[in-house]
Amino acid sequence: MGLNLIKIVHKTNNSEDKPLCIFGVLENNNGLKIEKEMLKWLIPEYNVYIVYQKKPGKFFEYPALRFAQWIIKKKNKTFLLYLHSKGASHPNRSKNIQMIVRKLWKHEYSGDNKNKYINAILTNKTDVATMFSYRRKKTWFNGFFVSKKAFDLLGKVKIKKRMYYERMFGKTKARVLGILNNKVRNSHAAARRFFRLFQKKKKNTDL
Fold first, then answer.
1. Distances from the Cα of 200 to the Cαs of 93, 149, 186, 194, 196, in angstroms?
2. pLDDT tens for residues 26-74?
3. What are 118-150's pLDDT values in tens digits?
4. pTM higher than 0.90 for the full model?
């Protein structure tokens, strides 16, 4: 696979009691800036492993997902949080979209809000809990909580083109739940509207 292009770093010590987080980072200026920003809120709440991939990132999300599949079994965990900086740094999207995705991640996957996702898996309501999921069990924005069961149903993740990783559960029996599906309908435009909504109502929101 060209392992010289991949590097894995454990970012947290004495954190086995925290939820596991695998964060894929493209090792370019933008990816490293995103990593630094996000670790400020990830490290206090998660046991974080970073899977770095050298640019241009020709393996897409494969290295981080394959490591996630391995470590969830190695540590015998029920679930983990998977994130990839690609979802917050798409080169063809505006900086505004990138910022929105990162703020959505922080809003939904930290503090008490993350429990909506964790509990959905622990109570067997779903196998994958993500912010938005519509047709073909897509996991929008490259960040979701995933169970060991979902990975087992998926089988070994493949090296494919970019969109495979958002649709990889589509042909499996894994259940994918979009926790915020009832808030917006679809698309990046919907994410913008949702972001404005919770910014305006952040003091009393029930999101």
1. 24, 37, 20, 10, 6
2. 888 888 989 999 999 999 999 999 999 988 888 889 999 999 999 999 9
3. 999 999 999 999 998 877 888 878 899 999 999
4. no
Paired residues of 143 in beta bridges? 83
Domains of the chain: 3-200 (3.90.550)
Other beta carbons less than 10 A from residue 191's beta carbon:
21
| 39 contact partners, CB below 8 Å, separation of at least 6 | 11, 48
- Going from the C-alpha of 183 to that of each of 5, 117, 136, the distances in angstroms are 39, 15, 19
Which one-letter amino acid corresponds to residue 26? L
What residue type is 109 in one-letter code?
Answer: Y
- What count of other Cβ atoms lies within 10 Å of the Cβ of residue 108? 22
Positions of E strands within 11-122: 20-27, 47-54, 79-84
